[in-house]
Amino acid sequence: MRKYEIMYIIRPTVLEDNRKALIEELNLIFTSRGAEVLNVKEWGTRDLAYEIQKHKKGYYVVLDVKTNDDARIEFDRIVRINEDVIRHIIIRDER
Fold first, then answer.
1. What tens-digit pLDDT sequence spans the chain (95 residues)?
2. Phi, psi dihedral angles at 11 (to 5 degrees)
3. Measured between alpha carbons, how far is residue 35 from residues 14, 45, 81 in Å?
4. CA distances from 53 to 16, 58, 89 (A)
5. What 3-state DSSP class applies to 6?
6. Which pTM was predicted?
7. What SS3 string covers 27-78?
8. For the chain, what are the domain ranges?
9. What is the second-level CATH architecture of the domain 2-92?
């Protein structure tokens, strides 16, 4: 298993309860496939550097995970489908 740092931005129009459910759902992708979520940092609503899908703000979430390829690929697939996630990036942590 490898360590990754994952950041995703949730659409600012998502209600707080739905946002918390979405974050839990995305974390469950890793835990249900034998991966380990080491840290979840919610940065909150911040200004975007440029407009994304007509939004000027977004809710940032950063994950530190130790995962296998199966869970990482499934996470990537799900966030591409989910309309509430407007941007994401997965970076392998070499530290």
1. 899 999 999 999 999 999 999 999 999 999 999 899 999 999 999 999 999 999 999 999 999 999 999 999 999 999 999 999 999 999 998 87
2. -50, 135
3. 27, 27, 21
4. 20, 11, 17
5. strand
6. 0.90
7. HHHHHCCCCEEEEEEEEEEEEEEEEECCEEEEEEEEEEEEECHHHHHHHHHH
8. 2-92
9. 2-Layer Sandwich (3.30)
